Amino acid sequence: MSDATVKYLLPETDLPTDWYNIVADLPTPPPPVLHPGTLKPVGPADLAPLFPETLILQEVATERRIEIPQPVRDIYRLWRPTPLYRARRLERALDTPARIFYKYEGVSPAGSHKPNTAIPQAFYNKEAGTRRIATETGAGQWGSSLALAGSLFGIEIDIYMVKVSYHQKPYRRALMESYGARCVPSPSLETAAGRAILAANPDSRGSLGIAISEAVEMAASRDDTKYALGSVLNHVLLHQTVIGEEAIDQMAMADAYPDVIVACTGGGSNFAGLAFPFLGAKLRGGPDVRIVAVEPAACPSLTRGRYAYDFGDTAGLTPLTKMHTLGSTFMPPGFHAGGLRYHGMAPLVSHIKELGLVEAVAYRQTEVFAAGVQFARAEGIVPAPEANHAVKGAIDEALRCKADGQARTILFNLSGHGHFDMQSYTDYFAGKLEDIDYDEGDLAQALAGLPKVAD
Ligand SMILES: *Cc1c(COP(=O)(O)O)cnc(C)c1O
Fold first, then answer.
1. Whether the Cβ atoms of residue 280 and residue 25 lie closer than 8 Å to each other
2. In angstroms, rounded to a whole number, what is the distance separating the alpha carbons of residues 261 and 281?
3. Cα–chain-centroid distance for residue 223?
4. Percentage of residues in the chain with pLDDT exceeding 70?
5. CATH class held by domain 6-15+67-111+240-448
6. 327 Cα–ligand 1 center, Å
7. Whose CA is nearest to atom 7 of ligand 1?
């Protein structure tokens, strides 16, 4: 077998013209989003302070295809279509009969899949006359993606960055500032939500849930400011389907079709982006495909969380969505895949998991980094810590092929590169990465605090 690099690149002219909306093909629709006060389904007017109308309409859309606006496609062309690789050297290193393909989203200017939604979100906001967007960021990948989009469309970006990451990741902050964004360590004194947290705990290291509360409060209280979220919401998952739409064509170029698709899940957007177009084809009578979501054992919303209505943030400012959740007050232990530290899972991914259409597995961080290092040494690309979860999932699938002698085709999403995360590799090589389990007592307490909603 040759181990020459094989890369499938679509011509720019074959960039998808539509995003794919899985809701059109589901056997049952996802449960409604509820207003936290009335517990009645939210209407577009409830969301209007936070999002421009086009995005609200996409949030509740039921049509199968939604056109990608030309100005968005023009910017996508900076890095899209992204390459699909056949991981021949990894296959050889594993001595597996499996064929392993990966879609590489790290070629975007911000280094991950997140600009796929940051660009259209900024575009629709610009169209609606938004002057400023407030958002949160954990590890900094979403913040840098929205900062990039803000600079391209001339929108001010205010980013509430989880305080511990703000201090641990100075280069991510520098990247956001290079694109012209303002970066504030969260919890901050700028918002009531932040001040309340600091009054109770002056040493708070922050969390994604707290930072979301701050950004939502800023957007809700200022007329010229909207809010943007980098994962979880239906419109975010929709924008990410450009990944899977390209992958379907590229797999055809390779004369192959996946038997199994693997992606990591934080809020679920890169997973949905790759998997939903293939799942939709299956739901419409196309080829069968297994779909595996990989999450960290330290923040296991899909494998250990409860499927229940919960808030998206810590202060309870967001609508209630039914999702796999660890409880909005759950604080995951410190681990290195910052982008996978969210307490909940996308409602659409959760619904599809409940329907039995996808599987989920959880891995510990040291085995995940071992997989990422093996991948880097075989394929040359150093993955983001989040993406290492997908690499680990794909390697385990390939080893299963070796055990049962089946030459299955595996497709996984390499959601980003790890160039801003080298400290976590340094810690891994120094033996400093610990497999800390979340605290069962804390989880029980967070789950006990879930809002009471009758089914
Ligand atoms: C943010 C991020 C993730 C996790 O977010 P999802 O919405 O689950 O995709 C995964 N990988 C990378 C590189 C990220 O930046």
1. yes
2. 13
3. 28
4. 99
5. alpha beta
6. 20
7. 269
